[in-house]
Amino acid sequence: MVRNTGFRGWYYFRTGWSTYFAFIFAAINTLTVTYFLAIENYPVLKEVFPTFTIYIIIIVGIGIPILTLIGYFHFKRTPSYRAEATVMYETNPFARRMFVNSELTLQINQKLIDLILRISKNEKISGDDISRIYEIQEKLNKFTDERTLSNKKDLDFMNKMDKY
């Protein structure tokens, strides 16, 4: 696997920035701006939130559960995360390769289980069965020889699976 130190560093930086720094900075900024520009100027709101500390405690106490619930719905109850995961598999050749490999392994294992069960019942394996096994082996060999991380063979395989 090729390691590109510059792009790896850039990826780590963006992750640290967007996940941690920007989140914390945005939260502090939002709390500060809303309190000092909005709440301090309205006496009714100033009665509800007499100090900045009280405001933070109340907003955090209400905001964290609400945002956690929104995150839960994002992952479990809406099609948005499914769409994100689909895009990730379509665009990430390593994830796509793992998915296709697991599907191929499942198909091979199903065929092997069928053969093992037939052998355990003392059934003979016919010439047609052996021909199908060779055919499967030939298809797998051709597929694995032709595919690379940069071509679309794995993606084509996934798209064919979606149609079934």
Largest sheet: none
Q: Termini, distance in Å?
A: 33 Å
Rg over CA atoms, rounded to whole Å, is 28 Å
- Domain module count: 2
- Amount of helix: over 70%
Count helical runs. Answer: 7
Overall strand count: 0
Write down the overall geometry.
elongated
Residue-averaged pLDDT, rounded? 92
Structural class: mainly alpha
N-to-C series of helices and strands: HHHHHHH
- Poorly predicted runs are none
User: Strand content of the residues, in percent?
Assistant: under 5%
Transmembrane segments: 20-39, 51-73
Keywords: Membrane, Transmembrane, Transmembrane helix
Short structural description:
With 164 residues, this protein is mainly α. The protein has helices at residues 5-39, 43-48, 52-76, 80-91, 93-120, 127-146, 153-163.
List the helices and strands and how they pair.
Elements lengths: L4 H35 L3 H6 L3 H25 L3 H12 L1 H28 L6 H20 L6 H11 L1
Structure in words:
3% of the residues are buried. With 164 residues, the protein is mainly alpha-helical. The two termini are 33 Å apart. The longest helix is centred in the first third of the chain and has 35 residues, at 5-39. The model has no long low-confidence stretch (mean pLDDT 92). The protein has helices at residues 5-39, 43-48, 52-76, 80-91, 93-120, 127-146, 153-163. The chain is elongated, with a radius of gyration of 28 Å. It folds into 2 domains: 5-78; 93-163, no CATH class. Keywords: Membrane, Transmembrane, Transmembrane helix. The chain crosses the membrane at residues 20-39, 51-73.
